[in-house]
């Protein structure tokens, strides 16, 4: 039997397997999972850096700052706005730069800029998330530009982004100046989740909100844009952060109505959900996947590997969420019918004779699947033991894919 590495190398070397096809397959189960939900469509980009030498750049272009080469991953995740459950990937893009662009950024239309990915991925969401009751596209600061505000919102589609630009306003002045003229109108405490480089903590915030109308940029090359776009803003500031902690300061722009302090805090809560995509990128680079250690020698192979790893990282997040209970999502939101059949067979093998050794979750639910994958990854299965984490689920998924492949051949 071929080694797992050899099989993967042959897969990524197959010309019929393209990055675009892998990315298109991300959303197969997501389309069903979002039905009748308000979905936060959270998107962001991350540089995936690979080691190169001066004589062998592996076909990769520069990323980040300095003499660093790699791949850029832009991804959008679907998250239930009410429960925070990860429903899967929506779409995105994986690419490497081919060289320096000669035409200055300001002199190019949007479709010739890398920033077009924020709009094109939001357009993908309108198709993939068609069965959702409402869509709120959420960006970080890089997604704050006039063409995005003008083109993305539509029926049942809202946009929420952290502000980066001091936009010119129709009534004169600029965004930052207008916000400062509004008094703070409320206080609240939010949980800041733990990260590898910082502990979790409670943040005491003050909020202010209001309405503004953006003026179309004077020198834009995109001639089809409207003259104005009406938005609402919400600003939250942590006035007294703990010693050594970076204070929270978010100026958020949105097409959602913000008429009360309760509306403003709801916007903050939805934007806070963006942290899940940071966890997604971290899980690809660490916590078992460690894709930046790959030894694949071609840019095409590395991009395919990143696209495959993105799907795996999303499943791991969904399994980690499922281990905690919460919403009892169906396993079909993550696994195919054939994979669920394989899971059922593995479950029969892994269960012990006593109740403590049996899968306690309802059959064919995501918690049921998470129990099985965790057991494959080396977890004892006892509630008294430490719950399985991302690395355990990563190892479990690796073993499951091998067994699922064998099961498919058995059925043939």
Walk me through this protein's architecture.
This protein has twelve helices and ten strands. Among the domains are: 160-261, Alpha-Beta Complex (Transposase Inhibitor Protein From Tn5, Chain A, domain 1), CATH 3.90.350.10; 328-411, no CATH class. The two termini are 17 Å apart. Helix content is 34%, strand content 21%. The chain has helices spanning 4-13, 19-25, 30-33, 116-128, 146-151, 175-180, 261-272, 275-285, 299-323, 337-350, 366-376, 390-411, and strands spanning 38-50, 61-62, 69-80, 86-95, 134-139, 157-162, 186-192, 201-215, 228-238, 249-254. By secondary structure, it is an alpha+beta fold. Strands 1, 2, 3, 4, 5, 6, 7, 8, 9 and 10 form a ten-stranded mixed sheet that branches. It is globular, with a radius of gyration of 23 Å.
**Mind telling me the CATH superfamily name of the domain at 160-261?**
Transposase Inhibitor Protein From Tn5, Chain A, domain 1
Write down the CATH topology of the domain at 160-261. Transposase Inhibitor Protein From Tn5, Chain A, domain 1
Please, how many helices?
A: 12
* Topology pattern, helix = H, strand = E: HHHEEEEHEHEHEEEEHHHHHH
Runs in which pLDDT lies below 50 for 5 or more consecutive residues are: 1-6
Coarse structural class: alpha+beta
> What integer is the average pLDDT?
90
Q: Please bin the fraction of helical residues.
A: 25-40%
- The outline comes out as globular
- Measure the end-to-end span: 17 Å
What is the C-level CATH assignment of the domain at 160-261?
Answer: Alpha Beta
* Radius of gyration from the alpha-carbon trace, in angstroms: 23 Å
Q: State the major sheet.
A: 10 strands, mixed
Number of strands: 10
**What fraction of residues sit in β-strands?**
15-25%
Under the CATH scheme, the architecture of the domain at 160-261 is Alpha-Beta Complex
